[in-house]
């Protein structure tokens, strides 16, 4: 192999690396192939080629590339790690686990290897072992919200709800806008009978992801348990005769809960009322009050804007004099809405 060929191979490899970083996987694959044509034992190019193929969902070919790389550099933790990921994508979970273990032989302090190993154990339904792997990962990288979240899901599977709740709390601490973490936190809280916490969590999940049907269903279940009814209880099920007035039951419950300071539960009741009667402007206004009292200024203004559309002058004047909005009076969005 002459020096010029080595230099050309290196140039194509670096070109491929830049393309891979820019998510141009087809371009990267072509560059790595050119590098390997010049230097067939360029193990970094084989690794890069495997990464590009994996991103293109060509996992069998990716696996072959990682094997070529490892034949040249058998102690490369990175190669064993990515080989394991490719095997996992192909459903070969036991082989993947063995590759993760080889990766850890050469680099036992890499948090991502422990984390991805744990995901494979979840796929294998070995939840206790998965939690042990997540714990190793979190000891190395304790501020990883994804690891706390996935640890929580494994704990849910084992019905260890208190520990799951703590895991989701840590995930939310590092990523407060994760709708899935709030949703799963709600599941854990509900399973423990902590319905107020569950309702607050499902409400937050829905606020972050309004089209979440699962969160909306679980919210109704938790609310039903909290107020002493379930969706199948005939006492509160709408009849044909009174179906049009059923929304008032939920609206009035929301008012009573709001008076007691149970703002998250009140919001849940107003949500049910609004599903039945979407033009119930008072429910929108009261939701805005509850969100403001909970400290969620943007959510409060979102609801107030919807109420104002139904009766602009009335709800602007009401909000201007309402002490529930004291905490957000200086918000630019609130001021703009009130001034019209």
Question: Structural class, please?
Answer: mainly alpha
Count of helices? Answer: 19
Distance between the termini: 75 Å
Amount of helix: over 70%
Radius of gyration from CA coordinates: 27 Å
Largest sheet: none
| Count of individual beta strands | 0
Structure description:
The protein is an all-alpha fold and 340 residues long. 75% of the residues lie in helices and 0% in strands. The chain has 19 helices and no strands. It has helices spanning 3-21, 25-38, 43-55, 59-72, 77-89, 93-106, 111-123, 127-140, 145-157, 161-174, 179-191, 195-208, 213-226, 246-259, 263-276, 281-294, 297-310, 312-321, 332-339. It starts with a helix and ends with a helix.
Please describe the topology of this protein.
Elements: H1 3-21, H2 25-38, H3 43-55, H4 59-72, H5 77-89, H6 93-106, H7 111-123, H8 127-140, H9 145-157, H10 161-174, H11 179-191, H12 195-208, H13 213-226, H14 246-259, H15 263-276, H16 281-294, H17 297-310, H18 312-321, H19 332-339
Helix pairs in contact: 1-2, 1-3, 2-3, 3-4, 3-5, 4-5, 5-6, 5-7, 6-7, 7-8, 8-9, 9-10, 9-11, 10-11, 11-12, 11-13, 12-13, 12-15, 14-15, 15-16, 16-17, 17-18
